[in-house]
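Protocol step 4 of 5: obtain the predicted structure for the target chain.
Materials: sequence only (see below). No template structures provided, no constraints applied. The aim of this step is simply to have a reference model before the mutagenesis design in step 5. Sequence pasted as it appears in the construct record:
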Amino acid sequence: MRSTSKAAIFLVAAIVIFTTGKLCGMPPKSGTNSDLLVVVNKGDQTLSIVDPESGRQLAAVPVGGTTGHEVAVSPDGRTAWVPIYGDSGVGNPGSDGRTISVIDLKSQARIASVDLGHPSRPHCAVFGPDGRLYVTAELTRSIDVIDPATRKVVESIPTGALQSHMLAISSDGKRGYTANVGSGTVSAIDLQNKKALAVIPISKVVQRIAISVDDRWVFTADQAKPQLAVIDTKTNTVKTRVALSDLGFGMTPTHDGRRLLITQPSSDTVSVLNLSSMKVEQVIHVPADPQEIVVRPDDRIAYVSCDQSKQVVGISLASGKIEKVIAVGAGADGLAWVPGNH
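Step 4 output (structure tokens):
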């Protein structure tokens, strides 16, 4: 009886050690079930992997090329895909990228480089509802479509315009919209039939693009005047223009569809646009050179990358105040949210 009791006690202790990992100096597993935030640092040519709850950078992974600007995370949350654009700004002379780096978020290492087959300056990457990766290819005036399983380009869809820089895709995956920087237009694209439906004139120059949660509106920032162009997706025409306090840049809607958040790098601010009234209801000051915004799925916090300050800030959408300041790398730009259980 005595030896049986000792064996039982030993077995229970072993189970506790194995399941908790908290005894005998064994470190507990961390991060495997937690949401993450990833940030592309243009200056450092790295991808920051951040714990948004603690506000701590967990790793800075070299992206393996010059230079990554944007990032997309696979639907399963396991990999980040960073197009390698080149060493210049849009429309300027410089090197012409032709690859996309694939980074495993668990091992925190680059595991592959997808060759697009020709120099194209790939820039904005978006996973569609079909699970495929859509990437703008400026030099070929197209969107390259990649099968993430084979890591091969399977389609090329024309945009009908120069400098197709940024991309938004409708929730059903049938339509794509590109902001064509130098041509000052937006292309509306039939992704299923692989053709441009319209090229919509906006201004001399535009920047960035977003689509409303209900797919009713597409937004792009006029770079000649501080205003947003609001495009009706049913008619593919400009419905209205919304005045801003400064030139807009990156933008994203909240998940509840009520607001659009817009970075304004020249004044180091973020404007909050009420999508019901189409009026700016708040302007929030942030660190130097805000670029992009990603909103938590619960709409509680919006994270803003700030290029010159090497920071990402977390803004409370309830109070409009900065709750977190996260140190990342130089040239913080593209952002993506990584859901837990990856």
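Step 4 remarks: Residues 246 and 267 are 7 Å apart (CA to CA). The radius of gyration is 22 Å.
Proceed to step 5.
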